[in-house]
Fold these 2 entries.
Entry 1:
Amino acid sequence: MEYTMLNNGIKMPLLGFGVYMMTDPKECETSVLQALETGYRLLDTSSAYFNEEAVGRAIKESGIPREELFVTTKLWIQDAGYENAKAGFETSLQKLGLDYLDLYLIHQPCGDCYGSWRAMTELYQEGRIRAIGVCNFGSDRLVDFIMNNKLPPAVNQVEFHPYYQQKAAEKIMREYDVQMEAWSPLGHGGKGILENKTLISIGKKYGKTPAQVILRWDVERGIVTIPKSVRKKRIEENFDIFDFRLTKEEITAIDLLDRNDAIADLTDVELIKKLNQLKVR
């Protein structure tokens, strides 16, 4: 495994396992357990994924010492605000069956984010969270947030894949020492990314799939990446990226694939309405 160092000195794996849309409890539990058996140690969930309990059961069943794991969950809009965030944290912790979190993120830049951050900062200072951060914050929101809080986010988890590279946003994150983390690093398997000729060609050279090439590209650029799969073979393939390195020319070739083609337009008013209406309990 390769790691990055967060701005508070905490070491975070560069490759993790995401569980977005794993709503079937048994499937989620089985997939997380397979991921842990494969070697993943970073797990990423959210109260809005409705599977924290399944993730917690898999962690317990794995028998892996807690200190070897890096567990992330997220605070949903419904729980925004100081008091709500405190309660939301306790609920997530209970569902996961854990005593502390490694990373807690504000899931969307909606609602009372500042009240949420005060609560999360207190929990961090109490040692109940090892690092706190945000998710889906555009550069304008991120910079404003940093300038108006004493404790800056350690992570900003955003959509990132070869067709949507967010280069300007990445530059801002590096400027402010905020770790970029990629959700949907394989573009949900859509948009033809995995059929891209450049990625296929690079993969053939190393005996790797286009997905493995993408994940290796993320890691070599220092971007935390959290692919998701419910298939054991794919879970294992996605982890098998530490026995090769891309050349500078190959990294540049992938960099040039950017189309600014996002899966989700988080500036869309109707989407924001739907997100605010989603209840996690």
Note: The longest helix spans residues 82-96.
Entry 2:
Amino acid sequence: MNEQSDNGLTRIQRRNREIILEGALTAFSVSGFRGATIDQIAGEAGLSKPNVLYYFASKDEIHKTLLTTLLDMWLAPLSDIDPEGEPLQEVLDYVAAKLRMSRQYPRESRLFAYEILRGAPHLTEILGGRLRQTVEDAVEIFQGWMQSGQLRTVEPHHLIFSIWSMTQHYADFDVQVRAVLGQGHDPFSEAQEFLDDLYRRLLAP
């Protein structure tokens, strides 16, 4: 049965697009945007070059689609913050979610970081639009909690920036972290304990 989704793609077409994006993630992670080629992406995906180009017109389109999908994933935990939840626990849960994503999706984190370092040519409109609005919505929640005395008052934008930095570091600089810690350490488990204590001390009223 060749069922179609809401966007008009069949199940097989959706699966092939996902396979191509997964292959592209590997190719971009190994060679960067400039170094990766359609041939390399096709090889990683196990498809022919014409098949890849049937779904995506160019390497640029593949890269932009992949980054947009990644951004949706990155923003989900921030969007999930519940204004009716227990404030400190909501923040700690967000920190834990971001650290968990760094552990589970290190290639994705590094690809996103690389795009930002390049000046975000594929994400400029999104960063100033959807990303900014999602952050502002969270900032409004945090400010409400701070004004009511449920969280210690800090600058909420920089609170979010610090969480991004403190969690994504373990993906983007994984080799450095493991080299410094040496064998016998689980960086993510140790980081979770440290960050939970750090933000609890910072934000507890």
Note: Confidence is low (pLDDT under 50) at residues 1-6.
